[in-house]
Write a structure and sequence with these properties.
131 residues; alpha+beta; four-stranded antiparallel sheet; four-stranded mixed sheet; 1 helix
């Protein structure tokens, strides 16, 4: 009888640990890390891309930095408050196509408070130059 109870207790522990691991992936995940904004006119105004992410960790995470991709044509906007475990957040990247013509392939990097590495977010598209 003790062996059966011990086996059941061990089995319940394994099931509980598996459920906890499934619930807490331990990282921030993005729905998309690459967005194609299509074809736009250089005089058509700002292009906005929204990168939605989920906090899969067991504690709140904050965005430490989002780079501008090395130019003033890209402006990131992101939440300043921490994102609770299991909740979604979003990073909006605005791209100004005024000084571009042809294919665009840009990258911004996001640093979260729970990680040393940076996450790369990219966007691509084509700008038709109009005067």
């Amino acid at each position: 009888m003790r062996k059966i109870l011990l086996t059941l207790a061990l089995l319940l522990g394994v099931v509980a640990a598996t459920c906890a691991a499934t619930r807490d992936s331990g990282e921030v995940t993005f729905e998309k890390k690459r967005i194609d904004f299509g074809t736009v006119s250089s005089t058509g105004g700002m292009v906005k891309m929204d990168y939605v992410f989920t906090n899969g960790t067991s504690s709140p995470v904050s965005i430490v930095t989002v780079t501008n991709g090395g130019c003033n044509c890209t402006k990131p906007q992101f939440p300043l408050e921490p994102i609770a475990p299991g909740k979604k957040g979003h990073i909006t990247i605005q791209f100004d196509p005024r000084n571009y013509s042809g294919e665009v392939n840009r990258e911004v990097k996001v640093k979260f408070s729970n990680s040393r590495k940076r996450t790369k977010l990219t966007f691509t598209g084509v700008v038709i130059h109009k005067k």
